[in-house]
Design goal:
Layout (H helix, E strand, L loop, with lengths): L7 H12 L4 H8 L3 H11 L22 H13 L2
Length: 82
């Protein structure tokens, strides 16, 4: 499953396994995730209360690759539609 976002169930299982002292290497093999992914999940979960679930991160912060003229045209087209 590399390249697919983690859902909440998967995150909860990973956090439960780390509380049970399962080695991270085994968690990586079971979930087919990179070690860095598991470590990022654990570091972001430290600041949360024990019953909270991490939210899904949507999209990136980069703008679309369109020209200024195309953006202007799309804005005008959207504003003129009823």
């Amino acid at each position: 499953m590399p390249g697919i976002h983690s859902n909440n169930d998967e995150k909860v299982r990973i956090l439960a396994w780390t509380k049970k002292k399962v080695p991270i290497k085994i968690i990586c093999k079971r979930k087919r995730r990179a070690r860095s992914t598991i470590m990022k999940l654990l570091s972001s979960a430290k600041a949360l209360p024990s019953n909270a679930v991490l939210k899904h991160k949507f999209g990136g912060g980069r703008r679309r690759k369109t020209s200024y003229a195309a953006d202007t045209f799309l804005r005008i087209e959207i504003q003129t539609k009823p």
